[in-house]
Amino acid sequence: MEQDTNEQLHAVAAYYDSFAAPGKEGSVTEYEEMYSTPLCKAEDQAVVATLTKALSKLQQQFPGQKLLAADIGCGEGLGLELLQSALNQTPSLVPVQYIGEDISSAMVAQASAGFKGKPGVLFTVADMHHIPVLDSSIHLVMSIFGPFSYSLSPEELVKEIHRVLMPGGIAVIMPYTMRLKIGFLTGATTAQDTDFSHTSKAYSKTGLEKLFDAWFEQVSIEGMNFLGNMIEKMADLGLLGSGPEIYSQILALDNHLNTFLPPECARHMFVIVTKSQNE
Ligand SMILES: C[S@@+](CC[C@H](N)C(=O)[O-])C[C@H]1O[C@@H](n2cnc3c(N)ncnc32)[C@H](O)[C@@H]1O
What we know:
The strands form 2 sheets. A 7-stranded mixed β-sheet has the order 3-2-1-4-5-9-8, sandwiched between helices. A two-stranded parallel sheet has the order 6-7. Helix 3 (38-61) packs across helix 4 and helix 3 (38-61) crosses helix 10. It contains 10 helices and 9 strands. It is of the alpha/beta class. The longest helix has 24 residues, at 38-61. The protein is globular. It has a single domain (2-274), classed as Vaccinia Virus protein VP39 (Rossmann fold, 3-Layer(aba) Sandwich). The site of S-adenosylmethionine has 21 residues, from helix 1, helix 4 and strand 2.
């Protein structure tokens, strides 16, 4: 079992290493290129909105404190960029210290180079099941666009997230959804060639509730981007304008579909949990 786990970790690291090299545009990596469509940029803004909400709750909870954030499966550091945008939208917030960790050393090298010299920021190669920080030391654990799905032991991962969060701390986690896996509706993925050969898992709301309810009292799960991919297809066919604004408008509207549809029907899901104050 341990050998399988190591093999899987190596396979995932090698897979992501291969994307962290400069792509066709030269200056940006293949990974960045893959996720630079207008729809992806609109999804990024939906992440910013979710982080902004989490940050304002944390600000109320921990007034005047410097917030510590851990980004597990940080890739090339998109999470830090989006966290920075969220902070810019809430200027009264105190600064954040950020640690980003990833199993792919090439991704971490890319992230470190991209944010070189930025104070309060550290990128490190680590397995997210062993976050290199003390118990109850982190205000915000974030994990955006899928790292959670690569865990072979999600129960352990949720326990680890709980371990590092301080009471009142918040985690914003985005596992892959069933829709992404099975291609429900049109356009399972905006990446040209998402490869699930590394046994990444796609989750349903109930599956995630089972995992997170074991450690957290407050678990909220929401879908993001139910319709965006269909709109993208229509734009590709010339049936619609294709300006980036349309995607942000669609994502804002389709947020309401959370009332009617299970979140696993969306392209992404947010699991938002708060560690109880009494722990
Ligand atoms: C789809 S990418 C998302 C990267 C980044 N969060 C983003 O949004 O750009 C998934 C990332 O999870 C990382 N990953 C997978 N398993 C991991 C593990 N056990 N520990 C740390 N990182 C892991 C991969 O190396 C990859 O960079």
